[in-house]
Amino acid sequence: MADYRSMFDREHIGAWDLEGRDVVVEIAGVRAGEVIGAGGRKARKPVLSFAGKAKTMLCNSTNAKAIAAMYGNDAAAWVGKKITLYPSTTTLGAETVDCIRVRPGVPS
């Protein structure tokens, strides 16, 4: 059965879209994006698109650092490279929330 959160019309992927498994994707594009967080606070983040996938991913600093460790700091050089996404959790304030992480190491 699909997680109910995957049934909402969302532009970006969520951890529930990975259905509890690792997913290898190829980065098709990287652009700067702006998101509005709690309290209306604006933040700039990289937005990744993937080959053959409709949804994009907001890339937080943890994931950006993992990708940069594999492929360098030039985000344009990430295009065409593969990464492994996996569902995890993180602490946001006093709450534990679902998140997506990038596995260290180039997928084979």
Describe the structure.
This protein has 108 residues and is mainly beta. It has one domain. 10% of the residues lie in helices and 41% in strands. It is built from one helix and five strands; from the N terminus they run βββαββ. Strands 3-2-1-4-5 form a five-stranded antiparallel β-sheet, covered by helices on one side. The longest helix is centred in the middle third of the chain and has 11 residues. The chain is globular. The relative contact order is 0.23.
* Topology, number of strands: 5
Overall shape: it is: globular
Number of helices: 1
Give me the secondary-structure category: mainly beta
Low-confidence stretches: none
Distance between the termini: 29 Å
Radius of gyration: 14 Å
Q: Kindly report the spatial arrangement of strands forming the biggest sheet.
A: 3-2-1-4-5
Order of helices and strands: EEEHEE
Mean pLDDT: 92
Portion of residues in beta strands equals 35-45%
Seen as an oligomer or otherwise, the chain set is single chain
How many domains? The number is: 1
Helix content: 10-25%
Give a quick account of the main beta sheet: strands, pairing sense, barrel closure: 5 strands, antiparallel
Write the layout of secondary structure elements.
Layout: E1 23-36, E2 42-50, E3 57-58, H1 61-71, E4 82-92, E5 95-102
Antiparallel strand pairs: 1-2, 1-4, 2-3, 4-5
